[in-house]
Amino acid sequence: MNYKKLVNPELRSVAINIPYNKFMIKGAYIFLPIMYKFTKIPAGISNKHILIQGHNNLPYKVDIYEPENTNENLPCLIYIHGGGFSYKAAPYHKQLACTYALKAHCRVYFPDYHLTPKYPYPAAYEDVLALYKHVMNKTDKIGVAGDSAGGTIAAMICNNYQKENIKQPCLQMLLYPVTDIDMQTDSMKKYIDTPLWNAKNNKRMWSYYCNDINNKENVSPMHSHFPENIPQTYIETTEYDCLHDEGVLYAKKLQEAKVNVKINETKGTIHGYDFAINSSIAKENIDKRIKFLKKIFYEER
Fold first, then answer.
1. Measured between alpha carbons, how far is 18 from 196 in angstroms, rounded to an integer?
2. What pLDDT is recorded for position 225?
3. Using CA atoms, how far apart are residues 28 and 144, in angstroms rounded to an integer?
């Protein structure tokens, strides 16, 4: 299907099909870090990085973005980028991390976690868990956020905080998240050829990340057991996306557990549409994310 005729006109230039396989992953592993490095940090944001001992005590880098000239005890956001558990962060992920830091006036921790297929589950989860433990005693408020596969990890950190004996996150923000290893929704069956991401890629992604069907509870937010309390949640879905329905269903599951959930079903969008970060539709929805972050970080004391 020609989705360029269906999507928001501003997104037509990025509505392209991108293969997802081990060959592409190897190539992206080379050029994405170069593009990321040379993406400019906006005025008003400072950047430093730390090393964290994560999965199997392997070190990995975490970028920290925060407003310049502040010594405040800022709220912190751990933002976990997407990429099928396989791709490193893209330039727009860096731009988003800086935008959240600047406009929500928070400190953003941005982990360069270990990736599949070399490092399947639990590598990425354990990397982020180690970062969470590092950050949680440095601030009164800590939130978790992630897009796509990053949303999976963010949700599992949130669902497991009691089991892991860590501080409860004050919020979770899940952007077009991967939530269900079963892949049986209508949108998963329908969108097999959508731009940027589709059901075929999604099936391969899960085979790289976790091919153990008996491990659903640990890897799939839809199958995990919720703790007694889950913080306020923002879930954003995209229209022409194999992951659309599982995002909506996960929001409903949270609501049934009495969680305060804000769901934003964007229209005319494709998975990863905020790649076109300067488009009006991306700006509009990024502003909604910022509003959610600011509300919980600063209005709810």
1. 5
2. 94
3. 26
What is the residue type of 175?
L
List of residues 6+ apart from 40 with CB closer than 8 A: none
| Integer angstrom CA distances of residue 32 from 22, 39, 93, 112, 281 | 15, 11, 11, 12, 25
**pTM > 0.85:** yes
Structure tokens at 192: 């097999």
Q: Residue 110: beta bridge partners? A: 63
What is the spatial distance between Cα 64 and Cα 147, in angstroms, rounded to a whole number?
A: 18
CA 159 to chain centre: 15
Mean pLDDT of 250-259: 98
Q: In this predicted model, what pLDDT tens digit does every residue of 138-170 receive, in sequence order?
A: 999 999 999 999 999 999 999 999 999 999 999
Element containing residue 96 per DSSP (H, E): helix 91-103
Token pair listed for 241: 């996306």
Answer whether residue 257 shows pLDDT above 70: yes
